[in-house]
Design goal:
155 residues; mainly alpha
Length: 155
């Protein structure tokens, strides 16, 4: 069993920790962006969120949807769908002893793809920008899973 000192000396694990911190911070930032758009556009999903803008029927006008809020929310949901598998598979992959340069390529491509995906979603850039960014990130996670299953797991 590896102890913490061995993990901290593992360059691949430390690279994974660094890139995971970046992408998780980006995902956390998206919830702040969603809240910002909800507040500035006065668009809320729950009645209790509207109470500072009015009571009863006057507050109901703030219970609505807005294209910009929904776009940011969907980008955040897409992060959740893609970053969580990356964290789980990437952790196992980083502990399986891959080559540092190959691991860095995987981690950098994923983080770059997720950042570009967010830019393409929020700007919005025409397709296939967002789709390509999605498939690059998804492909990276699949590649790590394949390498992990092929070399380290016993099925």
């Amino acid at each position: 069993m590896a102890d913490l000192t061995q993990l901290l000396e593992n360059e691949v694990f430390m690279a994974f920790a660094s890139y995971t911190t970046i992408v998780l911070s980006k995902m956390m930032f998206m919830s702040t962006v969603t809240a910002f758009y909800r507040l500035t556009r006065k668009v809320f999903a729950n009645p209790e969120d509207c109470e500072s803008f009015g009571k009863g029927e006057s507050a109901k006008k703030y219970l609505r949807t807005d294209d910009k809020v929904e776009r940011v929310r969907r980008a955040h949901l897409n992060d959740l769908e893609n970053i969580v598998p990356f964290v789980g598979i990437g952790l196992l992959y980083s502990l399986s002893g891959p080559d540092l340069s190959t691991a860095l390529l995987h981690f950098r491509l994923f983080v770059g793809a997720r950042i570009y995906h967010t830019i393409a979603y929020l700007t919005p850039l025409p397709q296939p920008n967002r789709g390509m960014a999605y498939f690059v990130g998804y492909g990276v996670t699949l590649s790590m899973a394949y390498r992990l299953l092929k070399t380290r797991l016993y099925l």
